[in-house]
Each structure stands twice: as structure tokens, then as C-alpha cells.
Amino acid sequence: MLREKLHIFGILGCVLCVVGSTTIVLHAPQERQIESVTEVWGLATEPAFMCYVGVVLAIVALLVFKFVPLYGQTHVMVYIGVCSLVGSISVMSVKALGIALKLTFSGTNQLIYPQTWAFSMVVISCIITQMNYLNKALDTFNTAVVSPIYYTMFTSLTILASVIMFKGLGPAKSDTNRDRDVWRRHHLLGNISTSQNKGHG
């Protein structure tokens, strides 16, 4: 439809993304049963996850106000970094909002809790930010380069946020497999970035 042709690195990136997704799904641990949105709020407001959110916001602010004006048009990692970091928080909020809606439709109204609306505001803010900088990245750089890098960073940071927020739920073996998946994705990101630099050279 878009009449775009993938070069060898684009094809390799797509294959590795599919393999990585399959690996994560096959080794995904069982999740605990959530009884209310307040339980998710309790997990989201614990010190470890709050520290993660603070670090993410600090890095995003640094990227937006310092690096975007200087390097946004020349380095794809700047725009993608903002999208991926904000996206990791948005996924956790979307998950909380999904749990709230599921419980509400099951007969346990979660809309009476202010936490549900707080998660909704976070989701809206994060999605607007993500779409803004993702569109800038797609307008500036080749889609074949943006897509695999964004997929890799977004997935890696989402897994990290989930492990922190939910305390790495599941058996130790599952945690090991999940950490191994994060390493694989960062390795993939490094390979893609290297190939991009060679292409510009």
C-alpha cells in the first residue's frame, strides 16, 4: 500500500521482532488476580515504581527541552527515546484502566474511585505525547528504520516497567527468561543502530 521496499536490514529487523515477540509470549509468567483498581494504584505508588516514573520524566524532559532542538532532525534515537519512555508508563496505565473497566462491566463499579480517572488522565497525556513525537520521527526518518528501533525500545522499557511495578511476578525461572528477553532486545537495538550508522556513512 505504501510502496516502500525493505532493504536487508529492514527484513532482518522484522524477523527478529517477530521472533522476540514469540519468545516473550511463550515464556510469559502467570499474573496475579487484581480485585480492584485501588490495588493497582497501590502497586503504582510504591517507591520502586515511583522512582522509575521520576527517572523517566527527568529523561523525557531532558530529551524534549535540550536534545530535540539540537539533534532531533539528525538522530532518530531522540524522538524514539521520548516515545518509548512515555510509552512504558502509558502501557501500565492502560493496563490499570483495562482492569477497572473489566471489573466495572463484571458488576463491580470502579468508576467511583478517583484512581480510575487518574489513570485515564495519564493514558491520555502519554498517548498524545507518544503520537506527537512518533509522527515527528516518521516525518524525519525512514519508516524502515523508525519501526524496529521503536518496537525494540518500547517493548524493552515496557517489560522493565512491568517488572518493577508488579515486582517480577512469577517463578524465578520466568524472571530469568524475561531478563534474557530484555537483553536480546537491547542487543537487537544495538545491531539496528549500528547498521543505520553504516548506512549514513
Structural class: mainly alpha
What is the chain-wise order of helices and strands? HHHHHHH
Low-confidence stretches: 169-176, 194-201
Instruction: Give the overall silhouette.
Output: globular
**Strand-residue proportion:** under 5%
Please, how many helices? 7
Q: State the helical fraction.
A: over 70%
Number of strands: 0
Radius of gyration: 18 Å
User: What is the terminal separation in angstroms?
Assistant: 30 Å
Largest sheet: none
Kindly state the mean pLDDT as a whole number?
A: 80
What can you tell me about this protein's structure?
By secondary structure, the chain is mainly alpha-helical. The protein has a domain at 56-166. Helix content is 80%, strand content 0%. It is globular, with a radius of gyration of 18 Å. Residues 169-176 and 194-201 have low confidence and may be disordered. This is Probable magnesium transporter.
Which helices and strands occur, and which strands form pairs?
Blueprint: H1 8-26, H2 37-44, H3 47-71, H4 76-105, H5 114-140, H6 143-165, H7 172-200
Helix pairs in contact: 1-6, 1-7, 3-4, 4-5, 4-6, 6-7
Keywords: Cell membrane, Endosome, Ion transport, Magnesium, Membrane, Transmembrane, Transmembrane helix, Transport
Subcellular location: Cell membrane; Early endosome; Membrane
Function: Acts as a Mg(2+) transporter. Can also transport other divalent cations such as Fe(2+), Sr(2+), Ba(2+), Mn(2+) and Co(2+) but to a much less extent than Mg(2+).
